[in-house]
Structure formats: C-alpha cells, structure tokens
C-alpha cells in the first residue's frame, strides 16, 4: 500500500536546509514572480520520494520563493518512518502505535 505524509514547514521563507539536499535549487526555481508555483521532487528509491512545494510571496516591492511544505511518498509505514527519520520530522502519531502493535 502506498502512503503519503504532508508536512507543513514552520519557516517557509527559510529553505536553506533544502539547498543541502537539492542540487541547483535556485536554478530549478528560476526567478520569483507573481503567481508562480513549483514542485521539486527527490527520489530516494523507486518507492520513496519527497516533493517540495514552492510558491512566491511578495515582500515589499519584490517577490521571493517560499517552501510551504514537504510531501513524503513511500511504499508502506516503514518507508514513511524512514523518510521522517531522515528529515528529522516526528513520525505520524496516528501510525506509530499501530505499527508497534503488529
């Protein structure tokens, strides 16, 4: 069974941590402008990936990119937990007890 986990980023305007994971991030995003959105995907295996949701926000007279969230896709709960652990994001609480009970 495929699983998805959506994570909202607490500081969307600071995506310096993502620059360590995504090569050429600034080039992939391009110049920020009004009404732009981008999804940058990273594949870790055929069954595990992370997708970063970017959009633009106006600050003063200019536009900036912000990363509002990350979506994890995995083959099962164990894969989802592995991605959560790799990104140092708490595991989905509604799944943790269920997995330990197995």
Question: Can you describe this structure?
Answer:
The chain is an alpha+beta fold and 102 residues long. Helix content is 27%, strand content 36%. It has helices at residues 16-19, 25-29, 77-86, 93-101; strands at 3-8, 37-43, 49-59, 62-74. It has a 4-stranded antiparallel beta sheet. The longest helix has 10 residues, at 77-86. The radius of gyration is 15 Å and the shape is elongated. The model has no long low-confidence stretch (mean pLDDT 90).
Structural key phrases:
single chain; 102 residues; four-stranded antiparallel beta sheet; 4 strands; elongated
Give a concise summary.
The two termini are 16 Å apart.
The biggest beta sheet is recorded as: 4 strands, antiparallel
Cα distance spanning the termini: 16 Å
Give the overall form.
elongated
* Number of continuous helical runs: 4
Sheet-strand content, in percent, reads 35-45%
Low-confidence stretches: none
- Overall helicity: 25-40%
Q: What is the arithmetic mean of pLDDT?
A: 90
- Give Rg in angstroms: 15 Å
The secondary-structure element order is EHHEEEHH
Count of distinct strands? 4
Secondary-structure blueprint:
Layout: E1 3-8, H1 16-19, H2 25-29, E2 37-43, E3 49-59, E4 62-74, H3 77-86, H4 93-101
Antiparallel strand pairs: 1-4, 2-3, 3-4
